[in-house]
Amino acid sequence: MFKNSADLEKRHQRFISEVVSSNEVWTLKSEQGYVSSSSNHYDDEEEEPLLLQIFWSTSKEAGVCSRNVWKQENFELESISLSEFIEFWCVGMHNDFVIVGTNFDHQLFGSEREPLILAEELLNHLKSEGSSIEFENYESIDQFLNSIKEHTESS
User: What pLDDT, on a 0 to 100 scale, did the predictor assign at position 144?
Assistant: First the structure.
């Protein structure tokens, strides 16, 4: 089944907007770990798909996927604060060469992003909304954005 890339991008933009508004990100966790799949768009140096970790902007959407896609896995909903997600999850996934999937549907269609790109999108949206957010290792959104920029320029 083909999914329109404009629809996927629309869902991704909704993800950005909703997680900034709610200040939380949702995922699924079981005894074996967090829900994941294989990337359709990102490969490693051996041309094998990178690991894709999936997140949603609402518990309802995550729950639908849990019931329809991974019903045998006994996943439970888990909420992550937006500041923790950006500062620790996105940076950690980047360091581990893991790709981020946002707002995947029950047919496993969704948007894929490099974690630092997603962090940058979220930080820019927070900034444009005039939202304040506290980080453990960064004094401001601008400092975090500059750190990402420096990292991506040196890569």
Answer: 96
Count of residues in the chain: 155
Q: Are 27 and 78 in contact (CB under 8 A)?
A: yes
127 token code pair:
């900034």
> How far is 25 from 94, CA to CA, in rounded Å?
17
Is the pLDDT at 71 greater than 70? The verdict is: no
- Distance in angstroms (rounded) separating the CA atoms of residues 118 and 65: 21
Phi, psi (rounded to 5 degrees) for 24: -150, 155
The pTM assigned to this predicted structure is: 0.92
> Which tokens go with 75?
């996943």
d(CA 132, CA 117): 20
